[in-house]
Amino acid sequence: MARGTLTDTYVAALQHEFADVPADATRVGVVRNPTSWFHAAVDETVPELGPPADLLDALRTAEEDLKMRGICDEEAHNAAWNRVAFGDAYREHLATADEARAAIADLSTRLDGGEDLALVCYENTEKKRCHRTILRTELER
User: Fold this and answer.
1) Is the pLDDT of residue 69 over 90?
2) Do the Cβ atoms of 122 and 11 come closer than 8 Å?
3) Among residues 96, 140, 88, which one has the least CA distance to residue 119?
4) Quick one: average pLDDT of 63-81?
5) Ranges for the DUF488 domain (predicted)?
6) Residue 57: is its pLDDT beyond 80?
7) Rounded distance, CA 35 to CA 22, Å?
8) For residue 32, what pLDDT is reported?
């Protein structure tokens, strides 16, 4: 059996029907605290693969500080990402948190079984950095 395909997108792209996701792909939300409208756009959620709350808080604090200095939303987000070493911290979370490791193993098994998956979160990666791209890389290994 062929391995399933893995894609990713953001929720607004799904809502406005311009996401490039295979029609039969299971849409897997990978945010820690999904909203009701987020739930409506995905088939399932795996909050264990969202960034930990303390990392999200650090990112938001750094981002707000940068915005207060007059930096635009996207630039503040990306600069805050670097300031808090978000990528390294999220990779560490994926490697060490038991619930994240179990969720990655489950998605990997599903991909190996031929299921097509689309990872979904909030950020448009054409403008902002996002944990979803790190997660996708981990699952592609």
Assistant:
1) yes
2) yes
3) 140
4) 94
5) 21-140
6) yes
7) 24
8) 92
pLDDT classification of 70: cutoffs 50, 70, 90: very high
- Cα gap 138→19, rounded to integer Å: 22
Nearest to 51 by CA among 108, 118, 135, 141: 135
Residues contacting residue 8 through CB under 8 Å, at least 6 positions apart: 118, 119, 120, 125, 132, 133, 135, 136
108-141 burial code (b ≥16 CB/10 A, e <16): bebbeeebbbbbbbbbeeeebbbbbebbbebbee
| Cβ-Cβ contacts under 8 Å for 72 (sequence gap 6 or more) | none
8 vs 132: CA distance, rounded Å: 7
With 0-12 CB in 10 A as exposed, 13-18 as middle and 19+ as buried, what is 8?
buried
Q: What's the rounded mean pLDDT across residues 92-106?
A: 97
Q: What is the 3-state secondary structure (H, E, C) of 38-63?
A: HHHHCCEECHHHCCCHHHHHHHHHHH
User: Angle 98-112/86-96 helices, nearest 10 degrees?
Assistant: 80
